[in-house]
Amino acid sequence: MEQLSDYRSCAVMGMDDLALAIGLPGKIGGHGSEVEGMVERGEIEQVRAYCEGDVLNLFALYVRWALLTGRTDPAGHNASLESLVMDLEEERDGRPVA
Fold it and tell me: What are φ and ψ of residue 25, in 5° steps?
């Protein structure tokens, strides 16, 4: 995210906006500002699901960024996302976000 915002030297969209712009689900189950309250209420499973959703969005954004900046090629981009999808499908029952 730092590189996408040129290390915050310019106003850019946040991770949620970028994720939605490329067809990802974006934030799932809340916002980062709500995590403290979820922890205080003992909603640890909701925190886990929220954080997992953030990580999945960030990974997919990183893979796309790597393609667009020449750090990977289309085959590497596709293999990375296919691997992610396969993992999520294999563990779907244990992952409420997937």
Answer: -70, -20
